[in-house]
Design goal:
Distance between the termini: 72 Å
Number of strands: 10
Number of domains: 1
Strand content: 5-15%
GO molecular function, one term: ribonuclease T2 activity
Keywords: Signal
Family: Belongs to the RNase T2 family.
Pfam family, one: Ribonuclease_T2
C-alpha cells in the first residue's frame, strides 16, 4: 500500500513540472534562425512609417476596419475591386531569394524594364499602397536587371547586404523612400522595390558597390523611370497611339528610338498585347546616368518569340487614376 501511494505521488509531481514555452526559446540557437518577413521595419504598423502629410485621418482609420454597410454594396461596382475602397486589400509579400550564387564575371549590360498596367492588370485586381498619392497613365517601373550576353540569367547573387539592412537604408533616406512609394509601388505583392534589389540588384555590385551601392542602384532605376515616358511619347507621336488598336512593332520602336536615341525591345502576352518595354544600358562609365546600348541578341530573340508584327496596348485601368476611389493595399511601398 505504501509503495502504491509513493508511485501516485511521483506521478503527480511529474505532471506539475513547468514546461518551457516555445516562445521563450532563444531564436538564435544552434539550429539557426531565419528572420521572419514581419521583422522588416516597413512591415510594422503602416501608419508609423507614413510621412506626416500622408497620415490617415481617424475617420479613415475607422473606415478601414468598419464592418461593411449592406447599403454600400453596389456603390463602387465600376471598379474591379474585391471590396470597395477604403477597405484595404491584404497582399502577400514578394519572397526574397532563398540563396545567393557566386558569379565570377561582371555583367555586360543592365536592362531597364517598365510594364504596361493595361496588360498587367487585365487578369488581376491592381491596387495602390496607401502611401502612393496618385499615379498617371503611363508605364510603371518594373526593374533594373544586370544581364550577360550569353544565355544565362543573373539573379540572387552573393553580396554583403541583407534585405532587412537595405530596407533600413531606404527608410533612413526619407526623400528616396517617398519616391519609391510614389514611383516604384507594389500593385500585386508587397515590397516590390526591395524584391527587385534582392533578386537583380545584388548582381550589380561590381558597378553599384560600396556601402551606398544599393541606394545608388535604386536611385538610378528611379531616375531612368522619370526620364522615359513611353506612353506619353507614343500618344503624342505621329502614330497617335490609342488603346486596343494594332500597330506595327517596328513603327513603335522607331518612335521611341528617335525620341530617346534608344534600342527598345518589347515583351507581349498572347503575341499581340504589350506587357513590357526594355532598354539596355552601359553603366560602367557613368553608373548614375548610364548611356544606352543595344540589348544582347537573346533579348531580341525573346521579342520575336513573344510578339507578333502587329501589337496593341490594352486600355489603362482607369480605376487607378482617381486617388479617392482607387483600390488600396496594405503594402508599405
Amino acid at each position: 500500500m505504501i509503495c502504491f501511494l509513493f508511485f501516485i505521488l511521483l506521478f503527480n509531481i511529474s505532471f506539475t513540472q513547468p514546461v518551457e514555452s516555445e516562445d521563450s526559446k532563444d531564436p538564435s540557437g544552434a539550429s539557426g534562425y531565419t528572420p521572419k518577413q514581419s521583422e522588416f521595419p516597413s512591415l510594422q504598423p503602416l501608419t508609423q512609417s507614413l510621412p506626416i502629410s500622408s497620415q490617415p485621418k481617424d475617420e479613415e482609420k475607422e473606415m478601414s476596419v468598419r464592418p461593411k454597410d449592406p447599403q454600400q454594396k453596389h456603390k463602387h461596382q465600376r471598379f474591379p475591386s474585391r471590396q470597395p475602397f477604403p477597405s484595404v486589400l491584404n497582399l502577400p509579400n514578394f519572397k526574397m531569394c532563398r540563396g545567393y550564387k557566386i558569379h565570377k564575371n561582371r555583367f555586360h549590360t543592365i536592362m531597364f524594364v517598365k510594364f504596361w498596367p493595361g496588360e498587367k492588370c487585365s487578369g488581376i485586381t491592381c491596387s495602390l499602397p496607401l502611401s502612393t498619392l496618385r499615379v498617371k497613365e503611363e508605364f510603371f517601373l518594373h526593374g533594373f536587371w544586370p544581364e550577360f550576353t550569353a544565355n544565362q540569367n543573373m539573379v540572387c547573387c552573393r553580396n554583403k547586404f541583407l534585405p532587412v539592412d537595405v530596407e533600413r537604408k531606404l527608410i533612413a533616406n526619407q526623400e528616396l523612400f517617398q519616391e519609391i512609394r510614389q514611383n516604384w509601388m507594389s500593385i500585386e505583392s508587397c515590397l516590390l522595390a526591395l524584391y527587385q534589389w534582392d533578386k537583380h540588384g545584388t548582381c550589380s555590385t561590381t558597378t553599384y558597390g560600396g556601402p551606398e551601392g544599393p541606394i545608388d542602384y535604386i536611385k538610378t532605376a528611379l531616375f531612368l523611370n522619370s526620364k522615359f515616358e513611353f506612353w506619353k511619347v507614343l500618344r503624342e507621336s505621329e502614330l497617335k497611339v490609342e488603346p486596343n488598336t494594332l500597330y506595327d512593332i517596328e513603327e513603335l520602336r522607331s518612335v521611341l528610338s528617335k525620341t530617346y536615341d534608344i534600342h527598345p525591345t518589347f515583351v507581349c502576352v498572347d503575341m499581340t498585347s504589350v506587357l513590357e518595354i526594355r532598354i539596355c544600358f552601359d553603366a560602367k562609365r557613368n553608373k548614375l546616368n548610364p548611356n544606352t546600348m543595344p540589348c544582347p541578341e537573346k533579348i531580341f530573340k525573346e521579342e520575336k518569340k513573344r510578339c507578333a508584327q502587329k501589337v496593341m496596348f490594352k486600355e489603362f485601368p482607369e480605376y487607378l487614376l482617381n486617388p479617392e476611389t482607387a483600390p488600396r493595399n496594405n503594402c508599405p511601398y
